[in-house]
Amino acid sequence: MSHQTVSVNSAAPTLANQLTSGWNPVCHITYNRDTWVKLLQPPSDYAFEEAKLLCQESPVAWVAWVPDYGEVVLERSDFYC
User: Fold this and answer.
1) Tens place of pLDDT for every residue, the chain, 81 residues?
2) DSSP string for the chain
3) Which member of 18, 45, 51, 52 has the greatest number of CB atoms within 10 A?
4) Whose CA is closest to 27, among 43, 16, 38?
């Protein structure tokens, strides 16, 4: 009976490179109208920390309603994904 040995250390970097080579740390969550999102920075000291998405203005921006503040335009970087 013969055993073939493979060095784990030599295969790991190649596997890690293959797994992470196409990795892009961009949020790919699909948001929908009426979704509540957590804001990274509320628009005022008295506004809520959440907003309700009303309609998508562009691929990266949403018109949203923030309680105790009103309507705002939020970029995807303004809220948690």
Assistant:
1) 555 544 445 444 565 555 556 655 555 677 889 999 999 999 999 999 999 999 999 988 999 999 999 999 999 889 886
2) -------HHHHHHHHHHHHHTT------PPP-TT-EEEBSS-SSTTS-SEEEEEEEEETTEEEEEETTTEEEEEEGGGB--
3) 51
4) 38
